[in-house]
Amino acid sequence: MIEEDIYIGDDQLETLFAIKSKEELIGDIIMLLQSPAKNVISALSSSGGKLSGILQTLSNK
Length: 61
Prior knowledge:
The chain is an all-alpha fold. It starts with 12 loop residues before the first helix and ends with a helix. The chain has helices at about 15-20, 20-60.
């Protein structure tokens, strides 16, 4: 059931088709929020291994 009809013209149809759905927007937001957290975790993991290697080398000397 359509409660309201609005016709804005054929020239605006491509714009309307390009609008993302609510689910797509939520997915994009979640992806953007997860990305920095994953980068931090990755950096900490890799630097943690380097740090432990450096400490191990220093303790052996």
